[in-house]
Write a structure and sequence with these properties.
Radius of gyration: 29 Å
Shape: globular
Number of domains: 5
Number of helices: 28
CATH class of the largest domain: Mainly Alpha
């Protein structure tokens, strides 16, 4: 991914006014100093989506979506960060710097470009062949699968000739050398047989990256032959563990979630039925690479795997991988049909929409699959099943999650709540949690715990002060006498406070959009949006303004003291520190802050 310096990002952002850009997508009306409209990230009837020209940020008071102009374009258009920067740079006529490459790097880049061109030419070749008399069998096959011409065109479907060697001859006629053809993975070369195509007599499915560039192919044999489905080998442009079929279309969806399937036809059938958020993992088990790719475009994944035993096992393997990536996962029930393609044909779009609404929580699905292993009519087997549930619950790193799932499981399976709590406690005491969870621990869980640590009252006080300073930076000298960035007791809030304080000290003004740019996670962007868009009552006089600011500062200090008092002995905080802080606050209350 290209690297852009903070200076370049600031230039791009400053050249693209957030109101001007967002108004191309959302109808905005000015109210006071800000602009409001219907939020494009969730369904609403009254406009709670706020865009501030002064702050160069947006924030939705309904769903919490927030950020700067780069964040908006990335989330609305489902772009990567660099793609959003490049699009905005183009809009403003800014030439982004090109990194110098060594001779070796240039040669690799040229070779990669040539292999991409081979795949593009091959895709056009297969596409045209499908629509000729030679591709009649494949065309009839697609029609039999109830695909429209429009859908076939949208996915670039094609046909590989009946005899091995036809593609090789075509590529040679286009001027490609043998070594680059071989590296493409589409042709094998040997002295006896010459060039032999990887794909022949097959209905062809071009596999594209997120930018709609053809990087590989899948082929379904026509008539008899093995294997039934065949994929391209991995090459310098194709890594199957990091490629999702249909993502080049699904990334443009307006739906919140992504639907993860197992095969090409499932994805195509769902898109044709209007579910343009479907992707598939190319006939291979889901990998962390796939999960990381999904995380770029969504936080919610719905599994729509086959309903047979193999499909259920694949879902059980995928669930922990998706969870490790920080994705919320649910499972769509395909019964009585095997897969989404059959389901759509059998029951239609509306029924599938209902199944999405009824999708099962991934953990409860895994418990239901676990139950199938036990004869719960037998007391011993029933006890073993309950122990298996308790073991699964211990895989959750946070106590609140464990408690919520204990409640849910007990209601679902009519288990005594105290008994299950006791069983989980005993297993944890035996060290099961450490044994089972240590290998799966990631940085994501500690992040969630840290952010959930401070109480809401403290976070609100911190947000009020940050919003106030952002809107009235001239008050900073007074605030700074009483508040230090270290008084912000949560990591993200403290980091933002440090940046805001530094901005005002250096330039006398606040630039919240620049602060937001330093954080790339969507969760951080949403929280930062809230920090600078907290509702403040409008004061009428300088005296009221001073009084309101004093109240905000004192509230932050008191809330912070209460929070620190609950964690004495942790992170270096001592009773002596608490007493000193308490004395400082009491002196401020007696003498006034300002």
């Amino acid at each position: 991914m290209p690297y852009y310096s903070d200076e370049i990002l600031d230039e791009v952002r400053n050249a693209n006014d957030v109101v001007d850009v967002i108004s191309q997508y959302v109808q905005l009306k000015k109210k006071g100093n800000d602009y409001f409209g219907l939020c494009p990230f969730h369904t609403e009837k009254t406009g709670s989506f706020s865009v501030s020209r002064t702050k160069q940020m947006y924030y939705c008071f309904g769903c919490g979506a927030g950020g700067n102009v780069i964040t908006f374009l990335r989330n609305y258009e489902n772009l990567t960060f660099s793609e959003a920067v490049e699009q905005l740079a183009g809009r403003a006529g800014i030439a982004l710097p090109q990194q110098e490459m060594s001779r070796e790097q240039q040669e690799r880049a040229d070779r990669r470009s040539r292999i991409l061109m081979i795949h593009k030419d091959a895709a056009v070749y297969f596409y045209k062949l499908l629509r000729s008399e030679h591709g009649k069998d494949a065309y009839d096959y697609f029609k039999k699968r109830e695909l429209s011409d429009e859908t076939m065109q949208s996915f670039g479907l094609g046909f590989a000739g009946r005899r091995p060697g036809e593609l090789y001859k075509f590529l040679k006629s286009r001027g490609y050398e043998d070594d680059i053809i071989k590296d493409s993975g589409l042709v094998t070369l040997d002295e006896k047989r010459g060039g032999r195509d990887k794909f022949w007599n097959r209905a062809m499915f071009p596999i594209m990256d997120a930018n709609s560039k053809v990087i590989a192919f899948g082929g379904r044999v026509m008539g008899e032959g093995e294997p039934k489905y065949l994929n391209s080998p991995e090459t310098v442009i194709f890594d199957k563990s990091r490629t999702l079929y249909g993502l080049h279309l699904a990334r443009k969806t307006r739906r919140k979630e992504m639907i993860l399937c197992e095969g090409y036809m499932d994805v195509i059938a769902l898109h044709q039925a209007g579910f343009d958020n479907a992707v598939a993992s190319l006939g291979t088990s889901l990998t962390p690479g796939h999960a990381a790719l999904l995380k770029r475009y969504t936080s919610d994944v719905y599994l729509s795997y086959d309903s047979d035993g193999a499909g259920c096992k694949a879902a059980l393997r995928a669930i922990p991988i998706l969870r490790e990536a920080g994705l919320v996962c649910r499972v769509i029930n395909m019964e009585p049909y095997k897969d989404p393609d059959e389901f759509i044909k059998g029951l239609g779009k509306d029924a599938y929409e209902e199944r999405i609404a009824q999708a099962e929580n991934a953990f409860m699905f895994s418990v239901r699959m676990e139950e199938r292993k036990f004869d719960v009519k037998d007391p011993d087997a029933k006890t073993a099943f309950h122990r298996a549930i308790a073991a699964k619950i211990l895989e959750f790193p946070e106590e609140i999650e464990r408690k919520n799932y204990i409640d849910a499981v007990c209601r679902q399976y009519e288990i005594s709540l105290p008994a299950m709590e006791q069983l989980v406690t005993h297993l944890a005491a035996d060290g099961y949690h450490r044994r089972s969870h240590s290998s799966r621990q990631t940085d994501e869980a500690p992040k969630r715990r840290r952010r959930a640590g401070a109480p809401e009252g403290l976070r609100e006080a911190q947000r009020l002060l940050l919003t106030r300073l952002c809107e009235a930076p001239q008050l900073y000298p007074q605030v700074r006498k009483a508040i230090d960035p270290e008084d912000f007791t949560e990591g993200l809030y403290r980091d933002v406070a440090r940046m805001l304080f530094a901005q005002i000290e250096e330039s006398g003004r606040a630039d919240p959009a620049a602060i937001a740019e330093r954080f790339r996670e969507d969760e951080d962007q949403r929280e930062i949006g809230a920090m600078f868009h907290t509702t403040i009552a409008k004061e009428e006089s300088a005296e009221e303004q001073k009084k309101m600011l004093e109240e905000v500062v004192m509230r932050l200090l008191r809330e912070g003291l209460n929070y620190k008092s609950q964690s004495v002995g942790e992170g270096g905080t001592s009773y002596n520190d608490i007493l000193k802080e308490k004395k400082r606050i009491e002196q401020m209350q007696r003498g006034g802050i300002f």
